[in-house]
């Protein structure tokens, strides 16, 4: 179960013909209320796609009753025609669901700089609206169809759900396999809940959750122009959730989706957790971990099962975090290969054959810690991103 | 001709046995004077190798009579034993050349976190000193041997020389194929001149030259721990060079070496010039160009001969430079694919089959311009950096 797990939501995923592959490529998630709470986190990339510009306007209105998402084209750098396409998409959804276009968020993903075919989108919205009106629109199958329709280079749909003993539920879906590095958010994510919470409460919980989950996924260092994380609240459970419990559950759900995204990152052969401890501040810990996660030499070494810890320290040294360069420890998969800037255990003891890799860096400069999740750099990544436009 | 082109310099390149391949791996360049002027630019990586720490001390002494360089090991993160190895290397050179160890710069390149074999180095220094005392030590062949001995994953030695009508000469050699991204400098470079210039004048000219040449080469985004650019002056021509003419000639020579490094970057299939114009400041132009040069999605697209300009703009959008995101033009190899943030000429018109690629980005925000030289991201890069420790 995913976005349809909470009460008050229906979903649909249909084939509009935008994807060359002919698969599902248009999704709609509808909030039936009684509440229309919503919170969003958008990309911090200054080159924002038309659907992001549109959705920012919708959020200023404060009421969200539906979100429509398409794969097969990012509708970014497509000028005024592209913005009209986004607007017309929202209008089409609004017309079919008898709501206002200003209550419809729009997300797009795919190639930048190409116009979307509005005719195909309109037809797809028609099909989706038929599905939304069917009896099965709140089923797990409907949620799965929506999660499948937003996939681009993803190989599997990503879904998660959680039900509180208090009686409310959260559900979510996500897509993203490349251009995975956050500004505030990364990728497309839709999360729904039937907890009774207003938009302000949702916003607080969402920012708290994304800061330590999606924001700390950095698969390939490339920030998308279309990233949007949306949290919709229907209030249909009738249960006023404890904000702290809700935030914790939301964070856990976002974490689950984050690790699903990492596991399906383009061409990856390893899931790498860069754990920095002993940092002077959390910001320092994130900065150091992110520097390592963006080193192509480190990433290729991991692909080659080579515990080349010199490449870790070379990346650490490019940052301005607080540390003594000759007081750093590094352990890889439990083997302490470097202590206080000198070789310790032989690198040959490190086993990098499992998919899961943990690099532990102790800066010995404080008590703060942070983890960045990244992937290795592989032939398959190069193949996927050189042989196909995406 | 390279470092032996100017009068007053001898060079040697020998096999010390540090490289597994068994090739030349230790070089010495000697300044016979009468001047002992010197200027250096070191990596800004805070994780500095032992030879960098040593050479910074030598520069404070102000007199440089020789520089010894080895491949086959970076001597970085090797602790006090590693520093003793560097010190002993300088002592060995000093003993053989009857100069002071404090007048000997040391450079090392290769794998981080492994001790160098001092016995091999000492034997290599002995052989090098014999070569330096031979009659051919000032020949082009001696310069070539030195340039060859500093190669790691380089496939060809890099040399350049220039003689002024005024009667003075500059010569240089460089190595570097991976970890190519500058702090102040990048890679190992030794430049010699017989112009009569003091160390202050050399320093001014060197910083002026590296700022717009080596500093603007960003092949793989990874900054080395060992980067050192050295300029040695013998004054042996007896000609006091015009500082402006000298600086211009030095910049041209550094540019030549920079493009040789780019052309031999690990696994590269394209040499890419990212030219930013219309920037509010030179800093902005560099920032934007560097962001594009570090986008793995852009780099893989170029490898695939795919003029995916959306990936250019997505990278531009991650910066804080002054620009209107919807006022940017992009041309690739002369085809204007994007005007004012909208599609212009069809991307199919772009021919990316030649090795040389120029991406021209006009920010329309001012009059400043800058170029960053980079490479594509290829299967061969992944292979070279995953299959071998370096």
Automatic annotation (TrEMBL), chains A, B:
Active site, per annotation: 186 (nucleophile)
Binding residues annotated for substrate, in chain numbering: 152, 175, 186, 266, 385, 390
Matching InterPro entries: Arg_biosynth_ArgJ (IPR002813), ArgJ-like_dom_sf (IPR016117), ArgJ_beta_C (IPR042195)
Pfam families the UniProt entry points to: ArgJ (PF01960)
Top enzyme category: transferase
Domain of life: Bacteria
Enzyme Commission number, as recorded: 2.3.1.35, 2.3.1.1
Single biological process term from Gene Ontology: L-arginine biosynthetic process
Record key words, sorted: Acyltransferase, Amino-acid biosynthesis, Arginine biosynthesis, Autocatalytic cleavage, Cytoplasm, Multifunctional enzyme, Transferase
Presence of the UniProt keyword Cytoplasm in the record: yes
Site keyed Involved in the stabilization of negative charge on the oxyanion by the formation of the oxyanion hole: positions: 109-110
Pathway the protein contributes to: Amino-acid biosynthesis; L-arginine biosynthesis; N(2)-acetyl-L-ornithine from L-glutamate: step 1/4; Amino-acid biosynthesis; L-arginine biosynthesis; L-ornithine and N-acetyl-L-glutamate from L-glutamate and N(2)-acetyl-L-ornithine (cyclic): step 1/1
Subcellular location: Cytoplasm
NCBIfam families linked to this entry: ArgJ (TIGR00120), PRK05388.1 (NF003802)
Function summary: Catalyzes two activities which are involved in the cyclic version of arginine biosynthesis: the synthesis of N-acetylglutamate from glutamate and acetyl-CoA as the acetyl donor, and of ornithine by transacetylation between N(2)-acetylornithine and glutamate.
Assembly information from the UniProt record: Heterotetramer of two alpha and two beta chains.
The protein's name: Arginine biosynthesis bifunctional protein ArgJ
Species annotation: Cryobacterium mannosilyticum
Gene: argJ
